[in-house]
Design goal:
heterodimer, A: mainly alpha, two-stranded antiparallel sheet, 9 helices, B: alpha+beta, 3-stranded antiparallel sheet
């Protein structure tokens, strides 16, 4: 899922980085201090998941886990994924400094999108709907990331449409794995800690004094 | 907020240190053996990139060979000329690597005189054994260094693998940043409380 350096053009880089910065700003604004540990845990999970490659059919793939990041964090998926990607880059040379913003965008934007679309389903009353919603959120967040990457490469003037289709088809298996994993998480959390799935759009900035007391 | 920004600035600053941002997640490795160029591609954790597309271009950008890697991540093509080869790997979904590989098969201008010098005395000086041609020397050296090269590649692969300490280190960083953020928030709120 990580774009490498030197593949996309400067225009795409600049646009993607700006969009990622905007997402990051929204995420940080809506991040309540009591949710910071949750962000850290999901960030760590994301950080580790990309390191484990599973040979699957003709290609090697890894779990992305951006869907579950979105479902549990909402807009805070942006800072979570950004931090994880930063350390993947620093420690393992994944991606690179110039494409950090772009990579954040390709993974965090679908995460926020699936949260907006499936968040209600996952946190709702029906178990079956939650299961389906979790599956769709997991698989479509990966799919969305793939589409975004294909789109960026296409904008960079590559004859990527064909190769992109091939790569998307290759990612169908991991979409299933990811969807399955996400729905398992959702079902588990509904049983154990259902309030975690109730991620609201916190538009008003929390008063710091209140949360200082909580801390 | 300000503290987090400071930490991130520091992190990004570190990333600009030479070398760090050069490498890619997908590794491409090439070597030449008897007029055949072998390329080997693998992900950071040592798993071969299967069915990844490799394009080889010469200095002028002309495509010399194109193909996909096999189960072991290897793709090979015959190439007997000297000069730099640009090898481009596309492992799908933006995974890619690009290396420049200098081939020095037989006709290499820099090395052939040395080879002749080396081969000459052996033939002349001994007087008993038949003269050894540069080709023979090439072949013998090739066969001797092949296992060495394999083990070097193995070591290189292992070096690039995400090791457990590194993974734990990364998790530690993430938790640390969260802690620093919370510390900043609590300090700020305490100060505001003192004021108000």
């Amino acid at each position: 899922m990580h774009l490498s350096e030197g593949i996309v053009t400067a225009t795409v880089l600049a646009g993607g980085t700006t969009a990622a910065a905007a997402g990051l700003a929204v995420g940080l604004r809506q991040l309540k201090p009591e949710n910071v540990p949750r962000v850290a845990i999901l960030s760590s999970t994301f950080f580790v998941a990309s390191l484990i490659h599973v040979p699957l059919g003709p290609v090697s793939v890894h779990l992305v886990l951006n869907g579950i990041n979105g479902l549990l964090l909402g807009w805070a998926a942006f800072p979570s994924i950004f931090v994880a990607l930063t350390f993947q880059m620093l420690l393992f040379q994944f991606g690179g400094i110039t494409v950090l913003g772009l990579n954040t965008l390709t993974m965090a934007f679908p995460a926020v999108l699936v949260w907006i679309i499936f968040g209600r389903m996952v946190g709702g009353r029906s178990n079956i709907l939650a299961l389906v919603g979790g599956f769709l959120a997991g698989s479509l967040s990966v799919f969305g990331g793939g589409i975004l990457i294909a789109f960026f490469l296409f904008l960079s003037g590559e004859q990527f449409l064909e190769a992109g289709t091939v790569a998307l088809v290759a990612h169908v298996p991991v979409m299933f794995v990811e969807g399955f994993f996400t729905s398992v998480c959702v079902v588990f959390l509904r049983k154990v800690k259902p309030e975690m799935l109730d991620v609201k759009w916190h538009s008003e900035r929390p008063k710091l004094a209140e949360h200082g007391e909580v801390l | 907020m300000r503290f987090l920004a400071a930490v991130l600035t520091l992190a990004i600053g570190i990333a600009f240190l030479p070398g760090v941002s050069q490498a890619h997640k997908v590794n491409l490795f090439a070597y030449e053996e008897n007029g055949t160029v072998f390329t080997e591609s693998y992900f950071g954790d040592g798993i071969p990139c299967r069915a990844a597309k490799i394009t080889a271009q010469d200095e002028n950008g002309t495509v010399i060979a194109e193909g996909v890697t096999n189960e072991e991540g290897v793709f090979s093509f015959p190439y007997g000329k000297e000069g730099d080869l640009h090898l481009i790997l596309r492992a799908g979904m933006g995974h890619g690597a690009r290396i420049t590989f200098a081939t020095n098969e037989k006709n290499d201008g820099n090395e052939s005189p040395e080879k002749k010098e080396g081969a000459g005395p052996v033939g002349k000086g001994e007087g008993i054994s038949p003269p050894v041609s540069a080709d023979d020397v090439d072949r013998i050296v090739e066969s001797k260094i092949a296992p060495l090269r394999d083990s070097l590649r193995e070591i290189q692969k292992n070096l690039e693998k995400p090791t457990f300490p590194k993974i734990m280190g990364g998790i530690g960083w993430i938790v640390g940043i969260a802690g620093a953020y919370l510390w900043g928030v609590s300090r700020k709120s305490r100060r505001e409380k003192e004021k108000g």
